[in-house]
Amino acid sequence: MRALAVPCTFAGYINERLTADIPTVLRSATALVPLKMETPVPFTGTWADVEACLKEFY
C-alpha cells in the first residue's frame, strides 16, 4: 500500500514546487503521505485536508 502513496506524493511535490520553496513543498508532500495511505485509490481530498494535517502533526 505504501507504493501507491509515492506517485501521488511526487505529483503533489511537483505541483507545489511551481510556486513554493523546497522546505514548504517537502512539508506538504510529507503531510500528503498519511492522507493518501488511508485509501487505495488516488487522493481525492483537498489541499485544505493537507493543511489540516500539517497543523495537527507538524
Please provide a brief summary of the model.
With 58 residues, the protein is mainly α. The chain has 3 helices and no strands. The chain has helices spanning 2-17, 22-37, 47-57.
Integer-rounded radius of gyration: 11 Å
User: What's the shape?
Assistant: globular
Ends: how far apart?
A: 23 Å
Reported for the largest beta sheet, the result is: none
Number of strands: 0
Total of DSSP H or I helical runs spanning 4+ residues: 3
Share in β-strands: under 5%
Q: Please mark out the parts with pLDDT under 50 across 5 or more consecutive residues, or reply none.
A: 1-6
Element-level helix/strand string = HHH
Task: Give me some keywords for this one.
single chain; 3 helices; about 60 residues; globular; mainly alpha
Description:
- This protein is an all-alpha fold and 58 residues long.
- Helices cover 74% and strands 0% of the residues.
- The protein is built from 3 helices and no strands.
- It has helices spanning 2-17, 22-37, 47-57.
- Helix 1 packs antiparallel against helix 2 and helix 2 (22-37) packs across helix 3 (47-57).
What is the secondary structure topology, with strand pairs?
Elements: H1 2-17, H2 22-37, H3 47-57
